[in-house]
């Protein structure tokens, strides 16, 4: 008997497989296709011959933990304790899974805001808990009144994703103020803040849960070096949480993966001495602007993109098909792969919107948009 009877193969896997089968340009799955920074690859090449290939401490490579604490202080002005409030994880997804597995119990309720990334619901179900899916407004802003209506004594956790995948929306100061007012009414609700795209924002600066003093005692924040440094295949992320929560999370982590890739942790630690996270947003803003400029002559309507490396577009002027069928036809007939937004909703809500990943080299973006403009 399946523990996840209603969950099937990820849409990302489906679309990437179709892209390969039809030799299409893959703008569906969220991974960069341009070279990793040479400063980082040079570090890895040097470390490959050094004694960094055995188990590291369960919480993470101590110099990396110290540098994460410094990064959080530099970025958000928050002082955290490296030894007790940080955990290096095998990617952000493992960090999210471990957090939910640790803190959510049978029959608890977890509020998930739709459209949402697909890794949130499964661990909730595996805890024999109940995911409560609440749709964002059609402009992807949260409706805090609606969210509050589903809160109860059974609610254990609210998950937010900021900057937001798939829509590129970022939360505002007023959003956090509304969230704080809500949580004051429910002192037992925890907050899981998925901030893996925290350094990929554009005109407006990212507001992190790290900066919200009222939330820190009840909040687990998820970050990703894989996303920030264009090394998604390394699967290195980290959690920041108050010591009382982190102590429990580490208990599960030690039996799930114990410790994370050693050479990657050491490489990232060394790389943090050379790189500024300010470089990241600038790189992707250039790519976003170039991608949007190239699509100006297309029949797609581009939605606002405030952060992440994803661009949502409406195809309503092109077709009345549902978004899954449109994306499949886009691959087969036009050679470009995208992700249908309806798959991020529990109820499959179809607004004729699809998601493109613009974390690609210029040649890829140029050829993809040439095909899209011809539709």
Description:
The protein is α/β, with parallel strands linked by helices and 375 residues long. 39% of the residues lie in helices and 15% in strands. It has 14 helices and 13 strands. The chain has helices spanning 11-21, 38-47, 62-76, 82-85, 92-103, 121-126, 144-149, 173-185, 225-228, 243-256, 262-271, 278-294, 323-334, 362-373; strands at residues 25-26, 86-89, 109-114, 130-135, 155-161, 190-194, 219-224, 237-240, 301-302, 310-314, 336-337, 339-340, 353-357. The strands form three sheets. Strands 2-8-7-6-5-3-4 form a seven-stranded mixed sheet, with helices on both faces. Strands 9-10-13-12 form a four-stranded antiparallel sheet. Helix 6 (121-126) links the parallel strand 3 (109-114) and strand 4 (130-135). Helix 2 crosses helix 11 (262-271) and helix 3 packs across helix 11 (262-271). The chain is globular, with a radius of gyration of 20 Å. It starts with 10 loop residues before the first helix and ends with a helix.
């Amino acid at each position: 008997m399946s523990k996840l009877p209603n969950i099937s193969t990820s849409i990302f896997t489906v679309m990437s497989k179709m892209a390969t089968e039809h030799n299409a340009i893959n703008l569906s799955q969220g991974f960069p296709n341009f070279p990793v920074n040479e400063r980082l690859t040079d570090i890895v090449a040097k470390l490959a011959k050094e004694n960094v290939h055995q188990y590291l401490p369960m919480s993470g490579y101590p110099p990396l933990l110290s540098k994460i604490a410094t990064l959080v202080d530099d970025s958000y002005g928050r002082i955290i304790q490296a030894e007790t409030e940080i955990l290096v994880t095998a990617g952000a997804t493992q960090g999210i899974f471990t957090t939910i597995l640790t803190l959510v119990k049978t029959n608890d309720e977890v509020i998930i805001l739709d459209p949402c990334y697909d890794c949130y619901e499964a661990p909730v179900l595996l805890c024999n808990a109940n995911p409560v899916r609440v749709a964002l407004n059609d402009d992807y802003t949260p409706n805090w009144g609606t969210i509050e209506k589903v809160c109860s004594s059974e609610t254990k956790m609210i998950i937010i994703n900021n900057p937001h995948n798939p829509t590129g929306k970022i939360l505002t100061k007023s959003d956090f103020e509304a969230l704080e007012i809500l949580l004051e009414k429910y002192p037992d609700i925890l907050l899981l803040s998925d901030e893996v795209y925290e350094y990929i924002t554009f005109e407006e600066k990212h507001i992190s849960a790290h900066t919200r003093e009222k939330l820190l005692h009840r909040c687990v924040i998820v970050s990703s070096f894989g996303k920030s440094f264009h090394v998604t295949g390394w699967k290195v992320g980290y959690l920041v949480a108050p010591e009382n929560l982190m102590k429990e999370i580490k208990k599960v982590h030690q039996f799930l993966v114990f410790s994370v890739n050693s050479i990657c942790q050491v490489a990232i630690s060394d790389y943090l001495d050379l790189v500024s996270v300010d470089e990241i947003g600038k790189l992707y803003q250039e790519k976003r602007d170039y991608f949007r400029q190239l699509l100006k002559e297309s029949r797609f309507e581009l939605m606002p993109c405030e952060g992440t490396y994803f661009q949502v577009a409406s195809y309503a002027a092109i077709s009345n098909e549902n978004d899954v069928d449109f994306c499949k036809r886009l691959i087969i007939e036009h050679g470009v792969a995208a992700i249908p937004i309806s798959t991020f909703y529990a109820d499959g809500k179809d607004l004729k919107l699809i998601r493109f990943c613009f974390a690609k080299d210029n040649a890829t973006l140029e050829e993809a948009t040439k095909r899209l403009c011809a539709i």
